[in-house]
What does this fold into?
Amino acid sequence: MSYSIEPRLHPVAIADLRPTQITVGMREVETKRARWRDERGGKGADFLGRHAVPVVAGPKNRLYLIDHHHLALALHLEGEESVLTTQVADLSRLDRHEFRTFLDNRGWMHPFDAEGRRCGYDEIPRRVTGLVDDPYRSLAGALRLAGGYAKNETPFSEFLWANFLRRRIKRAAIERSFGKALERALLLARQPEADHLPGWCGPCD
It folds into this structure.
């Protein structure tokens, strides 16, 4: 995502952060948990300093995550109580309806469930612990890391790729063999039918 930021150097309780999406890829969360365990002993403070999470101040001065949901959940599951935040905007003067409409139209909200269906705003969980698993989001994240597409500032680009894969790879195939599903995803990502997606790298030839 692309946004102007104002660093906030004091920590914020992860339990107080409000998500702006319904799902995450739990496989990616587990990868981030493992990385944090490796970093925590020696360079934990430096790691957290380099990974401040972007937030928007909303009604009642609640802070809403607009990115890095996977990291926030991973840190919480590893027992960390707080994280540094970067405040992108102060929209606390808006009422709830105006606020959520603005986030949605700004590309700072993704109210879609694990089946890729758009949901009502009230179905977005109020805590990161309420985020649910979408295996296609994990597959899309792994696809990017494997070079299937380039990192892109388009909001929720991984979810766009997840929905592309959702219609072409069966969920059972992902659950049966993530590695083989990733191989299939790499082939699909090079096809012209994916050329509308953010970060598309084109066919090998």
Notes: Residues 6-133 form a domain with the Conserved hypothetical protein from pyrococcus furiosus pfu- 392566-001, ParB domain fold (CATH 3.90.1530.10). Residues 9 and 84 are 6 Å apart (CA to CA).
